[in-house]
Amino acid sequence: MAPCCAPSPIPPENKMFRICSRTKSKLTQARNQESFYTPKARPSGHDIGKGFGTDNGGALPSNLLQYPNTDSNGDYLRGCKTVGVKGHPARFPAKLPEFFIKYLTEPNDLVVDIFAGSNTTGQVAESLGRRWLAFDLSREYLASSAFRFLGDATDPEIKVAFDRIMTGHCLKLNAKQHALNLEAAE
């Protein structure tokens, strides 16, 4: 049996680095780091040595992802209001799936969301050039998630798209089409 040739599922560290703080950047660029920073034990108990001044190409992000969820008037909620359905109760900010999609995938990779809800993940995957599949037990959630892809569609177009999906029709949605001109997928 041939050894597995699949690439490692663990992304390279440099893919998740963020820009260092201004102070850290000054330290790594200082010609005389000792005059800028003295390695020693800190009051917090951390013993930070000379290696702290090394430029590693960036800093690892915090292990706490903090993104506000303030989208209260976007295309999704406007569409829900137009067709008279409640928006998904557990929507999350687009920055959350964006972090993981950028970190774990490359353009044209496939992103699968088996609990799609309002399909924030699919919308972000689309915007980042990834292919995506969205699944949910609720047809209403899936139908209303199409609002994320209809842009400036009119209210009648939004209703037509929603009704087509609710009646079991598949629609090809992309940025160059809107609801009344959507091609029904065979």
What's the helix count? 7
Q: Numbering strands along the chain, what is their spatial order in the largest sheet?
A: 1-2
Structural domain tally:
2
Radius of gyration: 23 Å
CATH domain class of the largest domain:
Alpha Beta
CATH architecture of the largest domain: 3-Layer(aba) Sandwich
Low-confidence stretches: 1-6
How is the biggest beta sheet arranged? 2 strands, antiparallel
Find the count of extended strands (DSSP E, 2+ residues): 6
CATH topology of the largest domain: Rossmann fold
Task: Give, in order, the helices and strands.
Answer: HHEEHHEHEHHEE
Please give the share of residues in helix.
25-40%
Quaternary organisation: single chain
The best one-word shape is elongated
Break the fold down into its secondary structure elements and pairings:
Elements lengths: L21 H8 L3 H4 L3 E2 L5 E2 L26 H9 L11 H10 L5 E4 L6 H8 L3 E4 L4 H7 L9 H12 L4 E2 L10 E2 L2
Parallel strand pairs: 3-4
Antiparallel strand pairs: 1-2, 5-6
How would you describe this structure to a colleague?
- The chain contains seven helices and six strands, in the order H-H-E-E-H-H-E-H-E-H-H-E-E.
- By secondary structure, the chain is α+β, with helices and mostly antiparallel strands.
- The strands form three sheets. It has a two-stranded antiparallel sheet with strand order 1-2. Strands 3-4 form a two-stranded parallel sheet. A two-stranded antiparallel sheet has the order 5-6.
- The two termini are 40 Å apart.
- Mean pLDDT is 79; it is low at 1-6.
Quick description:
The protein is of the alpha+beta class. The chain is 31% helix and 9% strand. It folds into two domains: 13-53, no CATH class; 75-184, Vaccinia Virus protein VP39 (Rossmann fold, 3-Layer(aba) Sandwich).
